[in-house]
Amino acid sequence: MKQQLSALVDGEVDVERCEHIFLAAKSTGEVAQAWRDYHVIRDVIRDDCWIESEMTSRIMARLDDEPTMLAPQAMAAADKVTHIRPRFSKYSWSIAASVAAAFFVGMFVLNQPEIAAPTQIADNDTDEYVVAHHNYAPNSATYYMHNVAYNAGE
Amino acid sequence: MPSKFDFLRACLPALLLAAISQPAFAEDDLWATMQKTASAARELNYQGLFIYHNGAMIRSVQITHIYEGGREFTRNVVLDGRPREVFSEGDDIVIFNAKNDKVVIEKRRGQNLFPAMLPTQLHPLKQNYKLKFVGQERIAGRLAQVIDMVPNDNLRYQYRIWSDTEFGLLLKMSMLDTEGHTLEQIGFNQVAMLHTKDLDWFQPKIDTSKPYVMDDTTDLTHTADNLVVANLPTGYKKVDQIQLKVPGRTTQVQQLIFSDGLASVSLFVEPMVKGMQPRVGKKTMGSTNVYAHVLNGYQLVVVGEVPAQTVEQIAQQVTFKK
Predict the structure, then answer these.
(1) Which of A27, B277, B302, B309 is deepest in the core (most CB within 10 A)?
(2) What is the count of structural domains for chain B?
(3) Is pLDDT larger for residue B5 or for residue B234?
């Protein structure tokens, strides 16, 4: 899964075909941590906004020691941090950034073309919403009806 | 005595006119009655039986209400259909809901349940409704003043309230559409003031043969996100936002609640996932209007006891902040 994630970050996988990676990134802690780490590294390389994490402070400390690492010519000075750098070209970072944006704005937007054409609401389609409305909205006399199965236990 | 007869005949139109216009109280007086009605339901001690009608559906509910030491205690027992007991202490509401082989315990936040239907803060209502005195009627053996709440626009329904002339308790309330048809009605069949302050009735009927489970489908924490409803219909304000965990779904559903002080509308926002059938369109069920809409990969559903154009307007105004 980590390989798939880094492939995605590197732009080797089509963004449209990686729904399972998004889901996994959301649900499994390991992948989520890896996802976060990749972005921390990106942030360090770009020298922009900051996220608190042990890893970031470690990298920052290192960068303080060797400020030239950020320059493209510093390839020769490659060590622990820079060994992953070749994988993050400017191009792939822009993809990663757009993936990240999609991830936070609403990952499901990506899948929109696959969603079936909307259909008109039929008899019972919206019952659960009506019940939820009656349950939580104030001034609901309809509260006493509650004849639609919706909550736990059914 | 033709002269006396003539005199009466001459006076008749004036007398009739007086009879019709006589209870034309100043609107301020009517608002004072409304304020008394809003408070009475919360501060009086009473017990009664009320009936709720909506379309073809009818439910009878037994209510006991005690106000003691600044706290309100209410028990509502739904007598028709599935057994259901609703307990409230102040704003905390706990419901015991018998479902097949178990009893589900649900928690709710404060709602304006009958007869405490009117908000104690009448200011929002004053902006959206005009009051009109209708007359006097007997309800559940009590004499009531009948007042119409006429909306200033067609974004909300009209309400009629029956307020106990002596105590100010709300005896009945109905909701009417723009043609004057009754959409929904709730009112006492019998009601009596209580002189006791015992709280021994404030406990559910426990069925020891059934397991009791907590309903945890709702996260009542207040949430905020990138959702914006730019131009709410006149007089409506967002009053709450909660998250619902719908069984069998991986994503949470956001519920935003809007109110004009009396009528309320819910907006549900849910990300579309694979296999989910998007819905669009509108539907009317008694007093409830529903409008479904798809936007930016989200399913939007708006539900409320308001006219169709109000739910539609809210659905059309939703945008997502970038």
Answers:
(1) B302
(2) 2
(3) B234
Residues B135 and B269 in one domain: no
Q: Please report the pLDDT score of residue B184 as a whole number.
A: 87
pLDDT at B261: 86
Q: A147 falls in which pLDDT band (50, 70, 90)?
A: very low
Asked if pLDDT for residue A142 goes beyond 80, the answer is no
Instruction: Say if CB B278 and CB B262 are below 8 A apart.
Output: no
Residues of A whose CB is below 8 A from B283 = 121, 126
Q: With an 8 Å Cβ cutoff, is A132 touching chain B?
A: yes
- Residues with Cβ within 8 Å of B37's Cβ and at least 6 positions away in sequence, in order, are B118, B161, B163, B168, B169, B170
Chain A, residues 90-109, CB within 8 A of chain B, namely 105-109
Residue B166 scores a pLDDT above 90: yes
Residue A49 pLDDT: 38
The tokens 């390839």 sit on which residue? Answer: A75
More confident position, B137 or B114:
B137
Tokens of B93: 């509401």
In this prediction, residue B83 carries a pLDDT of 81
Mutation site for B-interface testing, chosen from A26, A127, A144 by largest number of B Cβ within 10 Å: A144
Q: Which two tokens stand for residue B313?
A: 């307007």
For residues B38 and B176, membership in a common domain is answered with yes
Residues on chain A touching B53 (C-beta within 8 angstroms): none
Task: Please tell me whether residues B181 and B224 are part of one structural domain.
Answer: no
Q: How far is B18 from chain A (nearest CA, A)?
A: 37
Give the CA distances from residue B305 to residues A130, B184, B263, B266, in Å, rounded to whole numbers and listed in that order.
10, 9, 6, 10
Task: Tell me what pLDDT residue B5 has.
Answer: 57
Selecting from B59, B253, B280 the residue whose C-beta is nearest the C-beta of A120 gives B280
The domain of B275 spans: 216-320
Helix (H) or strand (E) holding A67: none
Domain annotation covers residue B68: yes
> Residue B104: which CATH number?
2.50.20.10
Residues B170, B41 share a domain? yes
CB contact under 8 A, B278 and A147: no
Nearest to B94 by CA among B204, B186, B198: B204
**Mean of all residue pLDDT scores within chain B:** 85
Mean pLDDT of chain A: 51
Are B137 and B244 part of one and the same domain?
Answer: no
Residues B223 and B310 grouped into a single domain: yes
Q: How far is A127 from chain B (nearest CA, A)?
A: 10
Q: Per the domain annotation, does B16 fall within a domain?
A: no
CA distance B42 to B50: 16
Q: Contact B302/B266 with Cβ under 8 angstroms?
A: yes
Q: Does any domain span residue B18? A: no
Chain B residues touching residue A148 (CB < 8 angstroms): none
Residue B186 vs residue B97, higher pLDDT: B186
Of B129, B182, B181, nearest in space to B156 by CA? B129
Q: Are residues B87 and B185 in the same domain?
A: yes
Looking at the domain assignment, is residue B209 inside a domain?
A: no
CATH number reported for the structural domain that contains residue B220 in this entry: 3.30.200.100
